[in-house]
Amino acid sequence: MSTKTALTATTPLAAGFRQPAEWDRHEAVWLAWPSHQDLWGDALGKVRTAFTAFASAIADVDPATGRPRGERLEVLVPDAANEALASSALVGLGARLHRIPFGDIWLRDTAPVFLTGEGGARASVSFAFNGWGGKYVLPHDDGVSARIAEAAGLPAFRFPWVLEGGSVEVDGEGTCLTTRQCLLHPKRNPAMPQEAIEAGLKDALGVTTVLWLGDGLRNDHTDGHVDTLARFVAPGVAVCMRPSGGSDQNAKALYAVDAALRSFRDARGRRLNVKSVPSPGIVTDDAGHAMPASYVNFYIANTTAVVPAYGVPNDEAARAGVAKLFPTRRVLSIPAKDLLGGGGAFHCITQQVPA
């Protein structure tokens, strides 16, 4: 990546850019080292352990050569002390550390979205960020996108309206999947009706078709991010979760997602081929509160897909189900319950840069 960022005067769509599918090859992935004791409390050490295991999985170091064969890790650190900790934890993974301040590690929502264009061109697109509708307004989070865009050194687009990267899912062929609960939430873009949001998504992500799901998981303070509900896994193919038992707290929402997906046609006119994996069922925190646990919050890296595990019986069945969707990749299950205590799982802490 170069060191100069060129700002353009048009939109990504008009300039021929689009957000590619996550299964397309990546050059790198942006992450942020878990750093803030005041946010994580006693869980910080366990969250760092989960983060390091995840980073190691997607770097995928070849034991024969000692070199990473996955994708490069671009890791934010807020200060010298955390830079030293991250450098030690990630040794041998080829990570590049960037001294950029941030509120917390949820870069899927605070980092820019990276795009591809004609002839291998690439760019980034940034949006406004307001702490998930004002729920968690942390210092520096609203500046992370611009700082990463500058560090990436690619042509950079900016839009003034609020969008979190976890609220949209694309197939790379013109289709965007999202939820009404999040994108039409009154504390994000109250002056933008659904038609305006659709037009904005088309301009910003280079898509032509927007498909709308309804509500998200119980106690999801992102207000229904789609990356906990349904994901594209191949052209014309989507995966969601099926309820686990009659006591599944999300049964109604999950049945609705499945039905909606089966009714959709993508940008190329195809009926979606809908796959499913089991849901985790009831996952509670130490206080007994239901958590928004999701197996479809996996991350698709170059050589590996990483599925979150929550210490419940369906962990392995979900990993095996996802493995069937990615036969050319290793599919690993890594504990994520401590990470979920902060609000999300592995997909939520990543933002990939296409090759």
What tags apply to this protein structure?
single chain; 355 residues; L-arginine/glycine Amidinotransferase, Chain A; 4-stranded mixed beta sheet; 3-stranded mixed beta sheet
Structural overview:
The protein is α/β, with parallel strands linked by helices and 355 residues long. The protein has one domain: L-arginine/glycine Amidinotransferase, Chain A. The protein has eleven helices and 16 strands. The strands form five sheets. The protein has a four-stranded mixed sheet. Strands 4-5-6 form a three-stranded mixed sheet, covered by helices on one side. The chain has a three-stranded mixed sheet with strand order 7-8-9, with helices on both faces. Helix 10 links the parallel strand 14 and strand 15.
In short:
With 355 residues, this protein is an alpha/beta fold.
Radius of gyration: 19 Å
Annotated CATH homologous superfamily: L-arginine/glycine Amidinotransferase, Chain A
Work out the count of structural domains: 1
- Kindly provide the name of the CATH class: Alpha Beta
Query: What's the CATH topology label?
Result: L-arginine/glycine Amidinotransferase, Chain A
* H/E element sequence: EHHEHEHEEHHEEEHHEEEHEEEHEHE
Structural class: alpha/beta
Q: Which strands sit side by side, in order, in the main sheet?
A: 3-2-1-16
Number of helices: 11
- The global form is globular
Topology readout:
Blueprint: E1 26-32, H1 37-40, H2 44-59, E2 72-77, H3 80-89, E3 96-99, H4 107-110, E4 113-116, E5 122-128, H5 131-134, H6 141-152, E6 156-162, E7 169-170, E8 175-179, H7 180-183, H8 194-205, E9 209-213, E10 230-234, E11 237-242, H9 251-263, E12 273-278, E13 299-300, E14 304-309, H10 315-325, E15 330-335, H11 337-340, E16 351-354
Parallel strand pairs: 1-2, 2-3, 5-6, 8-9, 11-12, 14-15
Antiparallel strand pairs: 1-16, 4-5, 7-8, 10-11, 13-14
